[in-house]
Amino acid sequence: MNWIRITAAENIPPREGRTVQLGDLSLAIFNTGERFLAVENRCPHNGGPLADGILGGATVTCPLHNWRICLESGQVSRPCESGAPPVRTFAIEVMEGIVMLAHDQARIAA
């Protein structure tokens, strides 16, 4: 698998998120303190910037209307009756201190 360099892992402190722009795609990259997770930086409810949300474990709460998104699956957990489609998730790894995005994921997302 090929990888695209995103940023140094140290640029995303534990329990925080950052926005990364790849062409037309805006990603929200999170450091849970144990691992890094990536989703499309757009809440399915009203387009809120998920990177600016409140991180709790592997869940982010949208800063606009408190919708909760699982960063592992992209599923909306609150409100559970929303019927909203999941947020796109992306495979990332930290390699030698650099956050990397799977190349195939970037191509699919673009």
Automatic annotation (TrEMBL):
Write down the InterPro entries for this protein, in alphabetical order.
Rieske-like_NirD (IPR012748), Rieske_2Fe-2S (IPR017941), Rieske_2Fe-2S_sf (IPR036922)
Q: Which PROSITE patterns match?
A: RIESKE (PS51296)
The UniProt entry's GO biological process terms, in alphabetical order, are: nitrate assimilation
- UniProt EC number: 1.7.1.4
What keywords does the record list, in alphabetical order? 2Fe-2S, Iron, Iron-sulfur, Metal-binding, Nitrate assimilation, Oxidoreductase
Q: Which Pfam family, just one, is annotated for this protein?
A: Rieske
Which residue intervals define the domain Rieske in the entry? Answer: 4-101
Question: A Gene Ontology molecular-function term?
Answer: metal ion binding
Q: Quote the NCBIfam families the UniProt record gives.
A: nirD_assim_sml (TIGR02378)
Q: Which PANTHER family match?
A: 3-PHENYLPROPIONATE_CINNAMIC ACID DIOXYGENASE FERREDOXIN SUBUNIT, FERREDOXIN-RELATED
Query: What is this protein identified as?
Result: Assimilatory nitrite reductase (NAD(P)H) small subunit
Species of provenance: Solibacter usitatus (strain Ellin6076)
